[in-house]
Amino acid sequence: MTSNGRRPLLNRRLAEFGTTIFAEMSALALSTGSINLGQGFPDTDGPEEIREAAVRALRDGRGNQYPPGPGVPELRTAIAAHQKHRYGLAYDPDREVLVTAGATEAIAASLLALVEPGDEVIALEPYYDSYAASIAMAGGTRIPVTLRPHEETRDGVTHRRFRLDLDELRDAVTDNTRLLLVNTPHNPTGTVLTREELGEIAKLAVERDLLVITDEVYEHLVFDEAEHLPLASFPGMRERTVTIGSAGKTFSFTGWKVGWVTGTPDLVTAVRSAKQFLTYVASGPFQYAVAEALALPDTYFAAFRADMLAKRDVLAAGLTEAGFKVFQPAGTYFITTDIRPLGESDGFAFCRALPERAGVVAIPNAVFYDHREAGAPFVRFAFCKRTEVLVDAAERLRKAFAH
Ligand SMILES: *Cc1c(COP(=O)(O)O)cnc(C)c1O
């Protein structure tokens, strides 16, 4: 379609980003009455006391008018306290913390602030869907480094994960590389980068003097022996790292859109320069509620993790019995599967047929890749749903595929 017969309406930077797969798959879920394990949002709200805190803020007239540009002081203080308590990372709430409209705005503002047209931005592929578009809006060139499926057997147990090839990462850095965009725990693969991997990333960033943006929105969703380690805590990293967090995933209020950035005053000031012309401010009353949420006792975070772990195990068992090859996630609330044991190889075709075949909706991982063929046989299921929904989905998948 053209506006005047000569020029497409959508500009060249965004031309490749038509509509997202989530719209198509959610429509399919509705029209077929399927269980939607496509998009990653919980089907129950977060803690009642935090919901009440938002109501109180709204009633008391806190945050109903433009909050301060950097975020309300209560929340900035709570974010700094959280980073200190969890990771021993000290940030000045006044100069080193910025509240954003979710992690999505934090990602966009960071890239818009730090990337010059022509700069190369290295991102781990498959990537969260806003990365490619935000890099494009900033005029950057994205350089994917692909996480590869890896399998090893220890003590008779097979462990599968998508693994970062550090040599590949090293080789991707050029004189035009401006920054590394890292995501751990990683959506969609469920990989949690290890201390060794993060140490190597840090060494490379220091050696090549690169900036780093690290998306850690799933920091509280790590399972089994995995441990979330913030990249900013590695030697030489604090001064070059923009760390991004969000309340959405941790407190099961994805509609509130409260996210944040922590970093040095220079980095935070740069990000704020872009942020102030995107939304300026957002989510006033919710900022007060999230300040209370971040101060919840450690028992909240432990219970949240245990609950999600139990959900993971329900869905993973169902998928395994149905015949999928399951990459047991060490973090996030997604399970990536390989459909080849089912005699399938095209995730797109598989996901389009799945609602009719099994009454379940999933997402083909290929949408998160530039190298579509590398992602072709992988399909992602979200497990942030009520247990009875997951039990039902697991049963449907077993019925459709296990023979
Ligand atoms: C959900 C998600 C986001 C977006 O977070 P919001 O706070 O809802 O904007 C960013 N990054 C990753 C990896 C996510 O999964």
TrEMBL record:
The signal peptide here is none
> Known EC number(s)?
2.6.1.17
What this protein catalyses is: N-succinyl-(2S,6S)-2,6-diaminopimelate + 2-oxoglutarate = (S)-2-succinylamino-6-oxoheptanedioate + L-glutamate
Recall the GO molecular function terms of this protein's record.
kynurenine-oxoglutarate transaminase activity; pyridoxal phosphate binding; succinyldiaminopimelate transaminase activity
The record ties this protein, via InterPro entries, to:
Aminotransferase_I/II_large, Kynurenine-oxoglutarate_AT, PyrdxlP-dep_Trfase, PyrdxlP-dep_Trfase_major, PyrdxlP-dep_Trfase_small
The segment(s) forming the Aminotransferase class I/classII large domain are 35-391
What cofactors are annotated for this protein? pyridoxal 5'-phosphate
Q: Which GO terms describe its biological process?
A: amino acid biosynthetic process
Q: Cellular component per GO?
A: cytoplasm
Record localization: Cytoplasm
Any one Pfam family here would be Aminotran_1_2
* Record bears the keyword DNA damage: no
The highest taxon in the source lineage is Bacteria
The alphabetized UniProt keywords are: Amino-acid biosynthesis, Aminotransferase, Cytoplasm, Pyridoxal phosphate, Transferase
Task: From the UniProt record, give the pathway where this protein acts.
Answer: Amino-acid biosynthesis; L-lysine biosynthesis via DAP pathway; LL-2,6-diaminopimelate from (S)-tetrahydrodipicolinate (succinylase route): step 2/3
Q: Relate the assembly described in the record.
A: Homodimer.
Functional note: Involved in the lysine biosynthetic pathways. It catalyzes the transfer of an amino group from L-glutamate to N-succinyl-2-l-amino-6-oxoheptanedioate (N-succinyl-2-l-amino-6-ketopimelate) in a PLP-dependent reaction, yielding as products N-succinyl-l-2,6-diaminoheptanedioate (N-succinyl-diaminopimelate) and 2-oxoglutarate.
Family of this protein: Belongs to the class-III pyridoxal-phosphate-dependent aminotransferase family.
Protein name from the UniProt record: Probable N-succinyldiaminopimelate aminotransferase DapC
